[in-house]
TrEMBL record:
Keywords carried by this UniProt record: Transport
Gene Ontology molecular functions: ATP binding; ATP hydrolysis activity
Matches recorded under InterPro entries: ABC_transporter-like_ATP-bd, P-loop_NTPase, Plant_ABCG
SUPFAM superfamilies the record matches: P-loop containing nucleoside triphosphate hydrolases
Domain spans labelled ABC transporter: 39-72
Pfam family membership, one: ABC_tran
Protein's name in the database: ABC transporter domain-containing protein
Keyword Transport among record annotations: yes
Family listed: Belongs to the ABC transporter superfamily. ABCG family. Eye pigment precursor importer (TC 3.A.1.204) subfamily.
This protein's record includes keyword DNA-binding: no
Domain of life: Eukaryota
Length: 74
């Protein structure tokens, strides 16, 4: 994940939050097996835009937000 600055049409610089090929893997506490929770996700967030992360229960929304916040190993 990285921050990118781009010149806009005005004198202000804007920052985009970009993540490419994000993968989150968890290890089972019981048997040590690993499982991909999020795989190959690429996206970007623009300034002055609202973004919603939607999906059914268990689809990885909180896992994605934890990974973007640096709370999980990616």
């Amino acid at each position: 994940m990285e921050f990118q600055r781009k010149e806009s049409g005005t004198s202000d610089n804007v920052a985009y939050l970009v993540w490419e090929d994000l993968t989150v893997v968890a290890q089972s506490l019981k048997n040590g097996a690993t499982k991909k929770l999020v795989s190959g996700l690429s996206w970007y967030a623009e300034p002055d835009r609202i973004m919603a992360i939607m999906g059914p229960s268990g689809s990885g929304k909180s896992t994605l937000l934890d990974a973007l916040a640096g709370n999980r190993t990616t």
